[in-house]
Amino acid sequence: MKKVLITGGAGFLGSHLCDRFIKEGFHVIAMDNLITGDLKNIEHLFPLEQFEFHHHDVSTFVHVPGELDYILHFASPASPIDYLKIPIETLKVGSLGTLNLLGVAKQKKATILVASTSEVYGDPLVHPQTEEYYGNVSPIGPRGVYDEAKRFMESITMAYHRFHGVDTRIVRIFNTYGPRMRLNDGRVVPAFMGQALRGEDLTVFGDGSQTRSFCYIDDQVEGIYRLLFSDYAEPVNIGNPHETTIKEFAEEIIKLTGTEQKVIYKPLPQDDPLQRQPDISRAKEILDWEPKVPRSEGLKIVYDYFKSLPLSVLQQKAHREFNQKQH
Known about the structure:
By secondary structure, the protein is α/β, with parallel strands linked by helices. The chain has helices at 12-23, 80-83, 87-108, 144-164, 188-198, 217-228, 246-257, 281-287, 295-307, 311-315, and strands spanning 3-7, 27-32, 51-55, 70-73, 111-117, 168-173, 176-177, 202-205, 211-213, 215-216, 235-238, 243-245, 263-266. Helix 1 crosses helix 6 (217-228), helix 3 (87-108) runs parallel beside helix 4 (144-164) and helix 5 (188-198) packs parallel to helix 7.
């Protein structure tokens, strides 16, 4: 049985990857320090012999006994609400965490796939974004802790590939949504749905003309899975190229939820990207991949998931109080 280590395994994306690799017959080791992840996302896997969980921070020394075939590095806060509260941990997991895991991959002769992000493009001056675009990022802006951590992650991954011959993959993930997203994580899908379910007005930052492209979780996981088993080391965009404005999206959510809320507008946060749309030509060509799930279908599944949550979760304002002294 092939063995895979999935860091950030208790998070939104990581937990769905654990499910996929279990289904494909792998022995799965999930690793997470639970700073933004939640054991509820993977508790259904605990009874399985081929699943194990390690409560560990990959920014410190990482040890995995025995053989290891694959590593998927998905440990990182991924929403602005988190990485603005824990900026130093965000930088550390993208730098030290990646360095530690590349070291494990080198030692074990494992293939490693690292989770980069569309945020490496910053507030893009090129539209849609191709993998050749170098980005427009402020290294000292508040979002730089996430953007630059991921840019460093890509650099050191390519260095290990070129210098040490480590078998590496880089996925640039665009906005992804699905069940297990945290209602209070600050991203637009759970934010709008949470507001709709609580009977609050929907908050749009800026004038609502900024665009996003939303990829359903099953499509995202399929793209990542295909990339891992390709032999392609350069970055690959995985996302949905069908963009929509945030204003249109808010109206879509109001229609879906059948609620009467209005949309209210607040100032746009600093360095918030105005356009976000992947060019997925490379993924189509190399992986024969493109998203399949229409937004109307995916959003209905997510809405049903959020509706099923207990009222206490719906009313939660923050995931947890972060200990600012950790770093």
